[in-house]
Amino acid sequence: MTPHVALGRQGGVALALLMLSIAGCAGNEIPDESRSPSPSPGADEPRVLIECFYPDGSEVATFTRLEEAWASTNYVRIDHCEARAAEPGDFELSEEEAEVASVAEAGLPGEDPTELFLRTLAACVRIAPEGDRGMASQPTSILEAALVLCPEAPHAGLIETELGTRE
């Protein structure tokens, strides 16, 4: 025999409100977007454009944020991406972005820090497991910088595995 509890009308309403408030709390965490490219103060225009391509070279889409690319229905079909400044003449690295570029520069000395950051940003979207632009073709320092910039990337585990094979 199962226990039976009579709540009455007020008790039932209170229970329903409690359940709604608990359900309202679940999954409503504000994502930490501090690692995405820093927005320009007061600007509605994107700082970066990330163009992603299928293996045949045709364009999947152009994204302005990592989270947008990761949520794409075509994410798993992306072969590679290229990132560029939306306004090249006005683009300056933030302090965090410069730190990411310095990690990438460790293996690619003399390269432009802005280009290294943008290359790392593109790697944060997705790197195909195989192919000409696949995981094995990526410089170690770019993969290390990608883990600094986007440790929550869907393919972060694959990057870690690839780096483990290079030690």
Q: Could you report the average pLDDT, rounded to the nearest whole number?
A: 82
Gross geometry: globular
Number of strands: 3
Helical run tally: 6
Proportion in β-strands: 5-15%
- What is the total number of structural domains? 1
Low-confidence stretches: 2-7, 9-36
End-to-end Cα distance, whole Å, is 62 Å
Using the CA coordinates, give the radius of gyration.
22 Å
Strand order of the largest sheet: 2-1-3
- Main structural class: alpha+beta
Helix content: 40-55%
The helix/strand series, from N terminus to C terminus, equals HEEHEHHHH
Note the main sheet: 3 strands, antiparallel
Structure description:
- With 167 residues, the protein is α+β, with helices and mostly antiparallel strands.
- The protein has one domain.
- It is built from 6 helices and 3 strands.
- It has a 3-stranded antiparallel β-sheet with strand order 2-1-3.
- Strand 1 and strand 2 form a beta hairpin.
- Helix 3 crosses helix 4, helix 3 packs antiparallel against helix 5 and helix 4 crosses helix 5.
- It is globular, with a radius of gyration of 22 Å.
- The N terminus is likely disordered.
- This is Lipoprotein.
- Keywords: Signal.
